[in-house]
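Sample intake sheet
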Amino acid sequence: MSIVWFIIIGAVAGWLAGQIMKGKGFGFLWNLIVGIAGGILGGWLFGELGIEFYGVIGSLVAAVVGAVILLFIIRLIKKK
């Protein structure tokens, strides 16, 4: 997958995760960072569970799940 697709999927995943978590998000740049980190986290997590996703939609699903988990952890840390 090219870096351009990786960034686009990360941006969309970060935005979707912000919408799912009912927050205003952190702005475009932070949503992009959270989406990319979430993609890495989601890919690793699903790989450990033996679940594989293929294509753009599969990558987006894994990235969104990872980004939601990451946002949840960030919000837990922020509250303290």
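Comment: The helical segments are 3-20, 28-48, 55-79. The mean pLDDT is 84.
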